What we know:
The chain has about 260 residues and is of the alpha/beta class. The protein has seven helices and 13 strands. It has two domains: about 150 residues, Vaccinia Virus protein VP39 (Rossmann fold), CATH 3.40.50; about 100 residues, Dinitrogenase iron-molybdenum cofactor biosynthesis domain (Nucleotidyltransferase, domain 5), CATH 3.30.420.130. Strands 3-4-2-1-5-6-8-7 form an eight-stranded mixed sheet, sandwiched between helices.
Amino acid sequence: MFEEILKNLLPERGRVLEAGCGSGSLLRKLAAEFPEVHFVGIDPFVEEAREGNLEILKLRAEEVNALPGWFHLIFSHHSLHHFSSPVEFLGKAGRKLAVGGKILVWDWDEGARTGIPERYFAREELRRMAEEAGLRLMRLENFREENLLLARADKFRVAVASDDGLEVFPRMFGRAGYFFIYEVRNGSPVFLEKRTNIHRDNFQHLKTYDVYRLVEDCNTIITGRIGKKGEERLSSLGVKIIKFKGKVEESLKILKETK
């Protein structure tokens, strides 16, 4: 049942993270079956490995924010009850989701007879955890002795390349004078701040990476143009790129489709 639900949630291509991946056996199976998806697994008790479209990293679930880029799906399987702070994990995982990304948790229900003396969470506990972590619950169900939780982030950030905050910068992303940062909450953008592009007049190799570091808390960028290689690099990190020419106000209306 779990694998069927999981596979239905996998993107055609993109980035998927398993928190508490253990030996990585499930991820290896998925990586072979879905070669267009990049899989990452984290666990504090594993040997690190990189195999084609799979990475396994030695990291606690609560350190998910240390990973670069964004994920279209973050999931855990029979692992949440092992985490030192499930709420902390859920909150940080929500802030690492790509636009439209989801969090899937599948774990034993309270009182499940697994033969192991462990404490498991009841469905209502999972609901409270998701709410405390700032997630929007999409699905919460019980399957005999197991629970399923599916949630998404309630907000995300977008960086708009612009020289004046009125018009989207029509040329290359890295040549814009500023980045205007908005937070999208339930489809409505709220302006946060303006950041100066200190790399505007630089022409070094891999400039797009340096520029993006100025707005790396944003999983979406809006710009008039972006170089092909730069676009490929950012897309490989799960960044959503919207190419737009015109008023910033008009470009932000596109975000209503990504709530």
